[in-house]
Amino acid sequence: MNIYQEKLERIFSECRKHKARVKSSAKEMSSFMPLDAKRYENLGR
To answer: Does 35 score more than 80 pLDDT?
Structure first.
């Protein structure tokens, strides 16, 4: 594998990790998303 392929693979690996984190966070937030005005007010409480 040449240097460019290795760099691309590292970049894509980071993207896959980020995608997994976003997916996990979205799942955890689904109980109170999307926010309405009342939920937004109560966020900091």
So the answer is: yes
